[in-house]
Every structure is written in structure tokens, then in C-alpha cells.
Amino acid sequence: MNMGDLIGEHLSGLTNRLLETASSNERFFVLGGSSQSIDNVPNKPFLCGWGMLDSVQINRRADLKNLDTFLKKYPGKWIFGHCCYEAGFLLEPHFEEQAVEPDSFSIASFFLPRYVAEPTAAGYRIWDQAQEKTVDPEEVLTETTKSNSAQTPVSLQDPPSRAAYIDTVRHLIQHLKRGDIYEINYCIPFRAAGHLENPLQTWINLHARQQTPFGALYREGKNWLLCGSPERFMRKDGMKLKSEPIKGTAPRGATPEQDALNREALQQSEKERAENVMIVDLVRNDLGRLSEPGSVQVDELCGIYTFPGLHQMISTISGTLRPDVGFKAILEALFPMGSMTGAPKIRAMELIQQHECFSRGLYSGTIGIVKPNGDFDFNVVIRSILYNEELGRLTMPVGSAITANCNPESEYEECLLKAKGMLEAISG
To answer: What's the structural domain count of the chain?
Structure first.
């Protein structure tokens, strides 16, 4: 039995009906990760939210004040939502406000779902947040159905030009050598056109291939996010806030011996460690703006984590929040995440704006959950398919960290490696 079949078996019964029900709603959120071991079937349960009792939209800088108000309005409730990369231009007064592309996810939005399916030892508990009671799954779940509407087969468009990519990276290296920046995350989009017969199944395909801990399926109107992210942006537990930036990538080997060599080469790479450490320093500084003096620490530096398609270098930084810090202030200090901008953050964002050929939108933004006790968990939207079902438009951006001593050809190959799982998922 292949991994796709195992995933399908894992999503049988009630879990499959939960996902189908969520995906039939105009606004829903499904958070589902997996173990990091490639030897195990992904077994992390899914958290689902659907229906909408209330929401807050952040489209302009003046709207930011409504975010904390919305969260305080619903204590003891589950709240789900997202911030696009362009929300960073609202949070940082240095920048002019930026709009997202038409027919894409809104700049930022959080919603109060009516139903939340929370995993338990016995299966799932479905909580009705309007009536504040547990409900029978048979009352709120639909049967599995398939769309009968006409579909246009998905066709891949030409990949981003290698020559254009290398030319831009060489230009960015000149900024690095002049000291304008120390590191920049430069991204390019892979694109496809057509209509997915079943976005849920495509996400399952992606989930099977990538087996990452921060995957999610998210829908806002006609826009879908099929996310296979391995990266956590931020998590709050009590007064502890932590971030886990990724910088450093290596391919899996064709044999166990080659795989071990690739992993060791990543661990020992001066270039990859330098990239990671620069972002760790940036995150430490960002957390320091929010935390009790002396509480910021590096819990793990340059740890190596293995996924089906690649090895990743991940660090963990944490701090103890000051009691006066709200959610808006946390976003202002940390977003957009340094792993997706570079350092210094503002100058890197300026160069990203000048040199990238697309608007990032939800890519390199974040989606996540706010729990009833006020804790939260948000990912970094990478290794993801952005799909507009009305326009038949699929976008799969990828990027890498550009430093002064990088090899542009190698960086392009890293982009191809990161795109591989997404391209395979939409091909079936």
C-alpha cells in the first residue's frame, strides 16, 4: 500500500466527513499535521472549524485596532484566521499600504466559526459555539460527495526562467556585498491553469508527499490554500512565546548512505548555518521587543529535521511575554517573519518589492488558531498551493535565502526541489 492509500485510509469514516463538510463551506479551516518521522503514517489528528458567526477584516492600517477588540469580544472561543504577506506593510509604519492582487485572499481576516471539531481520545468532539454545547456529528456533517460541475484539466505553465532568476540573484548579491542587507529571501512563482476536481483530494495528495507538521486546508470564498508547511511562525503557551524559523535545505539521498551524507553536509554547511543564525538573531531582537528582560533564549540552534523530500535546518527561539502585550503588538513585532524576508527586515522587504515578479499574498503569510484560553499557534505559509476555483488559477511560490557567497544556480535548484511536492500533488 502506497503512502497516498495510507493517508486515504487514515482519513476514512468520521474524519473524512469532517473534511468534506468543512470544504463545502464558504469559510473554513482545517489544521492537520503529521509526525516528522518518514517511517510513520501521519497520525496527528485534525482540528476543523466551519461556518461563520462573526469575522473581522483588516484591509487598511486604520483597521488594525479592530483586531484586539475582536479577540477580546469572544473570550473562551475558538478563532481562526490569516494574514497575507502584505499585512506587513500595514503593521510597519515605514511603508505605504499595499493591496493584495484582485480575486485573492483578503489582506488579513479572522473569523469565529460556529462549529469546531476537536480531536479527543475517543474520536472527535464537535462543539457548537453558538449554542455552547456538544452536538451529534449526524446533525452537522454531510455525506461525502463529488462535484459534478464541468472541470478544466490542470495544465502547468512554463516554469520561472532560470536565466531571469540568476540575473536577479546576481543583482541582489551586489546589494549584499555593499552591505545594504545581510540576507534576503527571494521568491518566484510556479503557476498552473485549470480546475481541481477535488481540492480536498489534492491537499491529501500534498499531505501524503510532504508529511509536515503545520499543514492546513483553508478556504475564504473562492480562494483555497492547500498548505504543506513544515514551519511554525509563532506559538503562545501561557506567557511563553516561541518561533521556529527554517533556514537551510538539503535534498534526500537516493540511498540511506547518501541520505545520511546529505544530512551531515547540511549540518556542517557554513553557508546554511550562517543563513540560519542571521535569522535567529533577527527573531531574538523581535522577541526582545515583547518579552520580559533577560527571558529571550535560543532553545535549539540549527537542528536538522527530515521530511520525505528534503532535510531542513530549524532553530527555536522563545521569550516570556510582558503582561501588557496584546496580539496586535505581537504581530507588529514579529510579522512578516524574518525567515521570509531577510535581514535587516525593512530593507529586505523594500528589495523584495522591487525585484519579485508577483505579489506574495497568503504565501509567506500565516494562518492559525486562537484557542479558548487565549493561547495560539500560527504557521508560515510555504510549500503551498494557492487556488482560485472561479478563475482556475493555481500559484505555487517558492524561494530561498540569498547571501553574498551563494551560488545562483544552486539557489534555483533549491527552488525546484521545494516545488516538486506541490507539482506532483496537482498532477495526481
So the answer is: 1
Specify the 3-state DSSP secondary structure of 50.
strand
Q: How many CB atoms lie within 10 A of CB 151?
A: 13
Contact 211, 34 (CB under 8 A): yes
* Residue 177 annotated as catalytic: no
Q: Is 231 a catalytic residue?
A: yes
User: Which residue in 422, 348, 371 sits closest to 94, CA to CA?
Assistant: 348
> For residue 10, what is the domain's CATH number?
3.60.120.10
Q: Model confidence at 13, in pLDDT bands (50, 70, 90)?
A: low
Catalytic residue among 247, 272, 345, 418: 247
What's the rounded Cα separation, in Å, for the pair 204 and 189? Answer: 22
Q: Give the model's pLDDT for residue 317.
A: 98
pLDDT single digits (tens) 87-117:
999 999 889 998 888 899 999 999 999 999 9
191 vs 203: CA distance, rounded Å = 17
Give the predicted TM-score (pTM) of the model: 0.93
What is the span of the domain harbouring residue 51? 3-146+154-426
Q: Which three cell numbers stand for residue 367?
A: 494562518
Q: Which of 231, 272, 332, 414 is catalytic?
A: 231
